[in-house]
UniProtKB/TrEMBL annotation:
This is Receptor ligand binding region domain-containing protein. The keyword Membrane applies. Keywords: Membrane, Transmembrane, Transmembrane helix. GO terms for cellular component: membrane. It comes from Vannella robusta.
Amino acid sequence: IIGTIQGFIENEQSRAFEARWLSLDPAEIPVAGPSNPPSDYTRLYYDMVITAAKAIELLQSEGNFHLHSRISGEIWADALRRVEFEGISEYIKFDANGDLQAAYNV
C-alpha cells in the first residue's frame, strides 16, 4: 500500500503536550494517561482547535467577533489564512487558497 501521512515535528510544545497527556488520570480521561500516548490524530485535533482559537483572537482584535453574532464564511476564511504558529504537529501556515502548507511523508 502506498499512501501519504502528515509528517510531525518534535518541538518544545509537542514535548510539553505529550508530557501533560501522559500525566493525565485515565480514570478521568480514558484515552489518556501513562499507557496511552497521544495518537497522531490527537495532535492534529489539538492543532485544529488552537488554529480556530487563534483565528477568533485575530477577529476579536479587529472588532470582527462578537458573541451571538454570525461570522461570514469569507471573513472566517480570511482569518484562518492569516493564522500562523508553531503547533504540536507541525508549523501551521496556510497558503492563499486556505490550504495548510503541510509536510507529508510517502
